[in-house]
Design goal:
The protein has three domains: 166 residues, no CATH class; 153 residues, no CATH class; 204 residues, no CATH class. The chain has 24 helices and 19 strands. Strands 1, 2, 3, 4, 5, 6, 7, 8, 9, 12, 13, 14 and 15 form a 13-stranded mixed β-sheet that branches. α6 packs parallel to α10 and α15 runs parallel beside α22. It starts with a strand and ends with a helix. One of its GO terms (molecular function) is endonuclease activity. It comes from Microlunatus panaciterrae. InterPro entries: ATPase_AAA_core (IPR003959), Bact_Antivir_Def_Nuclease (IPR051396), P-loop_NTPase (IPR027417), TOPRIM_OLD (IPR034139). This is ATP-dependent endonuclease of OLD family.
Amino acid sequence: MKVRQLEIENFRGVCLGKVVFADNTLLVGGNNVGKSTVCEALDLVLGPERTSRRPVVDEHDFHRSTYVDADKTAIPIVIRAVVVDLPDEARRRFGGHLRRWNDTDRAFVDELDDGAEHADDEGVTWALPVSFRARYDAVEDDFEADTFFEHPLPELDELDDEEAASLGEGRDRFTRAHKRLCGFVYLRALRTGSRALGLQRGSLLDTVLRLSEEGSAEMWMETLRQMRDLDPAIGAIPGLESLLTQIRERAGGFVRLAGNDDATAFFASDLTREHLREVVRLFVATGPSDHAVPFTRQGTGTVNLLVFALLTMIADLKERQSVIFAMEEPEIALPPHTQRRVARFVKKEMGQAIVTSHSPYVIEQFEPDEIVMLSHGSRGVVAGSPIDPAGIKLKSYRSQRRQFSEAILSRGVLVVEGETEASIIPVAAAVLEKSDAGYVHPDPAGVTIFTANGDGDVPRWAPILRALGKVPFGMVDKQTTPYTGGNAVSLKSFEEFWESPVEGIEELIVSQLPTAVLRRFMDKAVQLPDFPAHQAKYDSWVTDADLPEIALKTLEARKGDAYGYAALLIEGCQSRDDLPEFLVAALERINEVLTPAATPTDAHGQPVDDEAADGDE
C-alpha cells in the first residue's frame, strides 16, 4: 500500500493543506514549514494505535488553538488520506469502500469530466479514501476523535438526528483492525527512544510481538503469575514473616480475616500487565564490556541502531512491501555511512518510505521525482507535491548530489564559479552582519553557496535550481566573451546575476579593499608555514603603493578554499566600509529578495498572517 494524497484542515499550524506523495517520498522544507505536522497527520488517520491513546487531541492540536467559532459551534480537525496499490486481501476487505482513482491526474475518476467512460484507462486504479475527524464536545466538555471510511458517503436525508450529529456524520468507522492491513509504522525523530524499545502499546517492540504471534497475552499472564509465586515467597524472609504474624494477630481483633496463615502475605508487586508494559526494559551489553544495562543508558547512536534493527524485523514480519513507513530525521546521532544505509534500506524494503531529513547523506539517496517540497503560505495554507523532473537533467543532478542535497534544504542558492568565491562570501557576510543590524547572514537566511565548475558552468544551474523551487542567484568574473545560445537563455532564470568588473576574484577583492586591510592581511600571511615567499616578497618596509601587487601575487599563489588565504584577507575587514563593494551589493540584494516583509498586525498588535504565528516543524 502507498499513501498518494493527504488533505489537512485545521490541524496545528495548517489551516488548509494538501500534500501529494510519490512511491517513496522525501519531505523537505525549512523549519516550521509543517513536515512533522504531515507525519503526525498520517499517524492520526492510519496509525493503528494512535486513536487509542488519551487524549487523542487537545486544544493545541487545533489551528491557532481555535476549536469553536464565535457562535460556539465546533470547528473540526479533518484529515483525509487516499491509499493506493492495495493488495488482494485489502481489496476483498475494503471492497465496498473503494473508489476508482486516476493516478496521473491525482483525482477520483467520478469527479472528472466523463470520468465513468475512463474508469479502466491506463493509470486508473482502486483507491481507499479514509479520514480522521476530531472536534470539541460541549456536552462532555472534552474532545472526541475517530477515523472513518470516506466512501460511500451517507445520504444526509436518510440519517436520523443522532447519526447526522455524530462525529462521522453516518460514515462507517475505519477501525484498528482495518488499519493494521495498511501496515503504517511511524518513527518519530529521537522522541521515540523509550516508546520504540519499551513495551508500551504501539511501540516497535510491541509491534514485533503482535506481528510475530508469539502469544503476548499468555506471556503477560505467566509473568504476573511467576512474580506472585516466587519461591521462597517474599513473606518467607524472617523479618517479614514475623511481621505478618503480628499483623494477623493484631488485625484479627478488628477485621474478619481468613482462617489460615495466608490471610496476610507479601508479594513482589501488585503490577498489572499495563504496569509491566511501562516498567519492563530492554537490557543491552555492547562491547568491549559484557555487562548488560538498560538501553536508555546506551549512546544515542546505539539506540538508533537498535531501533533500525527492529524496523528490519517489522519489515520481515509485514512481508516488507506491505509497510507504509514514515520516519523523521533518521540522521540524528548516526554517522554518514549509517544514514545512507538506513535511507537505502527503507526505500528498498518498505512498500513506501516517507522521510523527513536535514542531512545531505539521506537526501542524496532520493531521486528528484521522489522529493516533495513543502511550502507554508499565508494564513496557514500548506502545499506539497513531487518535483517536476522535466527541468532537471538527471546526469547533472547525480554528478552534484551533495551540493543539490544542501540546496534542496535552502530558500535561495548563490551559484559561484570556484572555491575561492565560495570561501569568502560567508566571511564577508559575517562582517556585514556585525555592521548592519538589519542584515541577515546567508546561513540563517537559508542561502546555500553552490560551486560550479568554472564560469562557463554557472548559467546551466539556474533553470535546474528553479525547477527545484529555489531562488537562484549567480556570480561570475568578467567575461571576455559574452554568454550565447543556451547559456544566455539559462541566465534569465537567475533572480539576480552579477558579473565582476575584473577577470579574477583575487584582483577584485585586492582592488576594492583599503590599504589597512591589505597590510593586516600580509602581516599575518607572511607568518603562515605555507606562505609563498618565492613568489611574494614582503616585509614591513613594503610601501602602500607596492602592497596591492604583493597581496595579489600571494592570493594567486594560494588560490582556493584549501589554503584559506582569500578568506583570511576578508576576515581582516572590520566593517561594511572595508568590504569589497561588489560583494556587498550582491549580499545586500540577496538579503532584500529573501527577507520577508513585516507581518501585518491588527489593532491589538496580534499578527494577521498565520504563517508567522503557527508554523510547525
